[in-house]
UniProtKB/TrEMBL annotation:
This is Carboxypeptidase E-like. The gene is LOC108563898. InterPro entries: CarboxyPept-like_regulatory, CARBOXYPEPT_ZN_1, CARBOXYPEPT_ZN_2, Peptidase_M14, Peptidase_M14_domain. It comes from the Eukaryota. The keyword Ion transport does not apply. The keyword Zinc applies. Belongs to the peptidase M14 family. Keywords: Carboxypeptidase, Glycoprotein, Hydrolase, Metal-binding, Protease, Signal, Zinc. Its cofactor is Zn(2+). The lineage of its organism: Eukaryota, Metazoa, Ecdysozoa, Arthropoda, Hexapoda. The active site is at E322. It comes from Nicrophorus vespilloides (Boreal carrion beetle). PROSITE patterns: CARBOXYPEPT_ZN_1 (PS00132), CARBOXYPEPT_ZN_2 (PS00133), PEPTIDASE_M14 (PS52035). Residues 1-28 form the signal peptide. Residues 36-352 form the Peptidase M14 domain.
Length: 472
């Protein structure tokens, strides 16, 4: 079944179910959404109201640690079975307000949560399909203390409220994995994934907000994410650090450069005018002339950002979205901004279904194999081009490999098994789930062979991982 016929069938089935009152049956009255700046307490109430009204597909929880001032870092999750990873369902996240004075993303995510709940209950086939086939995490504010300071001081200063309450820029506080990746490149050592275990010192102490985010990144097998900022209008993709140390103007491509460019465009081109060359740029650079996207380091280099950390510490592909010229727009701008961003926010979530996914399993026992290494070579142009960034299968053996259309050689390898290679054709598909390619692995009693890359276990030594605290 092709994805588009699958989707069409699903849509028809859902339409019938919703006529029968089986989808989106109303549980109570969802309060209408108010477009205004919600303070930290109001944000919690909005999320809890939504999770209460859509309790079969959502829940509110907090990250493991609160902010410096003790404010919990709330998130809301939407999925078929909230609170659990579902085999073959990709995990997605949006994170906003890491810079406390960049507040649009925070309100957009509250509205998005409300929209998903409302549309799910109304039986909107797109939303129902997405929620049932994706686990979506929305974190409206990971720097609530900065938000409070920015708000208390009028919100119009470039920097006041950007930092957390220890005056640390959280988006510079992540361990620098780029330098490790670049030095591995120089020594022709191919490690370019799950690099946290190669960190042996930190240049600055991790803030509680950063620690919470890192634990979340390591705990959930995310496939795709974006972090929402303000101050410009552009979709920024890895890497954020230049290889030479140059501060601006040097393109730093990641092994998945083509996929990242696709992902950034999946946002910019579905935004009302991020990719419109007739728009007046916010600042000096006219990103719209280039499709509304930019490589991070080409724009300006930074160390310790969350975007590159996600890519180099986990399976997650993350981009950074600058959503408005104004960091703290007036409340009257929030509704029009939602309209300008809605399609882009939806379209980007769908990208967690591009490429291929499947289950790596032991051909004898039929058990899923976790931490299997998935290595990809691009064969589209005949000359093999290796993509030097492997991803690992998750706990139950399921893996997700985001890819743009093309022909790929995919090799899966795990300790104690023979490698298994398949040639895969990825085509552009409409909204639907990724093409499924499973990998049975043989040869448990073969001599143990070394891994493609000897880094199969996600690092968990220097950071303990208590379970998230469930609020509701
Ligand atoms: C920390 O929070 C307190 C209490 O809100 C505030 O007075 C102070 O200015 C904040 N400090 C920083 C560095 O953000
Ligand atoms: C593979 O190569 C084709 C042809 O150059 C290209 O269009 C595609 O984006 C590449 N895929 C990836 C994931 O780099
Ligand atoms: Zn920012």
């Amino acid at each position: 079944m092709s994805s588009s016929t699958g989707m069409a069938a699903a849509v028809v089935a859902l339409a019938v179910l919703s006529l029968m009152g089986l989808v989106g049956r109303s549980q109570g009255l969802l309060k209408p959404f108010e477009f205004r700046h919600h303070d930290n307490e109001e944000m919690r109430l909005v999320l809890e109201d939504i999770a209460g009204e859509c309790s079969d597909v959502s829940r509110v929880a907090t990250l493991t640690e609160p902010s410096v001032l003790g404010t919990p870092l709330y998130y809301i999750e939407f999925s078929k079975h909230p609170g659990r990873h579902q085999i073959l369902n990709p995990e997605f996240k949006y994170v906003a307000n890491i810079h406390g004075n960049e507040v649009l993303g925070r309100e957009l995510l509250l509205k998005l949560a409300h929209y998903l709940c409302e549309q799910y209950r109304a039986g909107n086939p797109e939303v129902v399909f997405l929620v049932r086939n994706t686990r979506i995490h929305l974190m409206p504010s990971v720097n609530p203390d900065g938000w409070q300071l920015a708000t208390d001081t009028g919100g119009q200063h470039e920097l006041i409220g950007r930092y957390n309450n220890n005056s640390v820029d959280l988006n510079r506080n992540f361990p620098d994995l780029n330098s490790i990746a670049y030095s591995n490149e120089e020594f022709s050592k191919e490690d370019n994934n799950h690099l946290l275990k190669e960190v042996n010192s930190l240049t600055q102490p991790l803030q509680p907000e950063t620690r919470s985010l890192i634990r979340n990144i390591l705990q959930i097998p995310y496939v795709l994410s974006a972090t929402l900022h303000g101050g410009d209008l552009v979709a920024n993709y890895p890497y954020d650090l230049s290889r030479s140390g140059k501060e601006t103007g040097e393109y730093a491509s990641a092994p998945d450069d083509e996929t990242f460019r696709h992902l950034a465009k999946a946002y910019s081109q579905h935004h009302a005018d991020m990719a419109d060359p007739n728009m007046k740029p916010c600042n000096d650079e006219n990103f719209a002339k280039n499709g509304g996207i930019t490589n991070g380091a080409k724009w300006y280099a930074l160390v310790g950002g969350m975007q590159d950390f996600n890519y180099l510490a986990s399976n997650d592909f993350e981009i950074t979205l600058e959503l408005s010229c104004q960091k703290y727009p007036p409340a009257s701008r929030l509704e029009p901004e939602w309209e300008r961003n809605r399609n882009a926010l939806m379209n980007y979530m769908w990208q967690s279904h591009i490429g291929i996914k499947g289950i790596v399993y032991d051909a004898n026992t039929k058990q899923g194999v976790p931490n299997a290494v998935v290595h990809v070579t691009n064969m589209t142009e005949g000359i093999p081009r290796e993509i030097k960034h492997d991803i690992l299968s998750a706990h139950d053996g399921d893996y997700y490999r985001l890819l743009t259309p093309g022909t790929y050689k995919v090799t899966v390898q795990a300790k104690g098994f023979q490698p298994h290679t398949k040639l895969v054709n990825v085509v552009q598909r409409g909204y639907g789930t990724a093409k499924r390619i499973d990998f049975p692995l043989h040869g448990h009693n073969f001599q143990e062979r070394p891994l493609v890359h000897a880094n199969q276990m996600p690092f968990n030594g220097w950071i303990n991982r208590p379970q998230p605290i469930v609020v509701q």
